[in-house]
Amino acid sequence: MTECYIYDHVRTPRGRGRPDGALHEVPPIELAAGVLRAIRDRNGLDTGLVDDVVFGCVEPVGEQGADIARLAALHADYAESVAGVQINRFCASGLEATNIAAGQIMAGQSDVAIGGGIESMSRVPIAWMTDPAVAFKTYFIPQGISADLIATKWGFSRTDVDLYAVESQRRAALAWEEGRFARSVVPVKDELGLTLLECDEHMRPGTTMQALGGLKPSFAQLGGDYGFDGVAVQRYPEIEAINHVHHSGNSSGIVDGAAAILLGTREAGATMELKPRARIRAFASIGSEPCIMLTGPEQVTRKVLKRAGMTTSDIDLFELNEAFAAVVLLYQKLLKLDPEKVNVNGGAIAMGHPLGATGAMILGTALDELERTGLGTALVTLCVGAGMGTATIIERV
């Protein structure tokens, strides 16, 4: 099998996903084209060498509709020969897109490909609709209630999840202060060249337990008024009642952003005159119980480690998307992980979760941290709507 290498990665800063956010005025196709231009320009890339652009996008409608990967490549003035495809695996779309691009290379069907993703949540809000027939048989409940179900079932208190959120904010603030993201974050500029955003906008570095203590649970009314708590208890009868502990301060932020990862064979790297930064060691996806929904990361981690012939002790860093605080606490608990090896630079609670792009963003974050610390391996994973998990292992070269 052909080896696949990462040659570079870039991302935008994450802008607040609302009308007053710094990136709201930027169309999604411009965000996507912007990271493609950055990958090209900083590497002197001959885009005629690129076989495919694979981008994740969770809401491919309206301004994000059609095939935004192909259209963004054209808008970025890539060669006409560069194909493009948009894919959707909900929150893991950016990582899945990168895995698909890597798979093309490993299968010998592409020499150079770009994975990544885009989501403009301020302009194209998420609207997940579920067919009633499917919802009934799978005990469908909204993700926030699934997160509260996890907290209830495994005994994570409001204090536990809030403490995790405070630490995420602290780590993210420190990472920005020390310039740990400087190599990969590309400022977003307007048509006049004026900078719109150069730092993640969602962060609240001064977050305290006292401040979080004043926030009301976000999903208690939804669970009670619409009967979703009852559905969760019906599926998990050992739970007498849902303890609602998640709120806006310990859940992932709604933001805008895009990311791109340049992948290729060793031979293609020589042609591009680029040095590989990491190797794709293995990747996998898995389905998990759809009611509780967010437990897939632990299961897919075991699957991808088995595929790679590794154990958790062989992994130096873990990056798990912080969809909700309880998701990370459960992951650490079930895999018996050292919290000092998980999300060392903070995560989506602090910086936000631009759905289609997050997977590619955190893969890049893991690679930057491997290089900064001189460590060797990282495992990147995300929980996924409808009960799934996706994971990728990379190895620094």
Rg result: 20 Å
- Intertermini distance: 18 Å
| Total DSSP E strands | 12
Q: Into which percent range does the helicity of residues fall?
A: 25-40%
Number of helices: 14
Q: Main sheet, how many strands, which sense, barrel?
A: 10 strands, mixed
Structural class comes to: alpha+beta
Percent strand: 15-25%
How would you state the average pLDDT, rounded? 97
Overall form: globular
Q: Can you walk me through this structure?
A:
The protein has 397 residues and is α+β, with helices and mostly antiparallel strands. It has helices at 28-43, 68-75, 93-106, 132-137, 143-154, 158-177, 209-213, 220-225, 228-235, 266-272, 296-308, 325-335, 348-351, 358-373, and strands at residues 5-11, 15-16, 52-56, 83-87, 112-120, 188-189, 195-197, 255-264, 278-287, 317-320, 377-384, 388-396. Strands 1, 2, 3, 4, 5, 8, 9, 10, 11 and 12 form a 10-stranded mixed beta sheet that branches. Strand 11 (377-384) and strand 12 form a beta hairpin. Helix 1 (28-43) crosses helix 2, helix 3 (93-106) crosses helix 14 (358-373) and helix 5 packs across helix 12. The longest helix is centred in the middle third of the chain and has 20 residues, at 158-177. It is globular. The protein starts with a strand and ends with a strand. The relative contact order is 0.21. The model has no long low-confidence stretch (mean pLDDT 97).
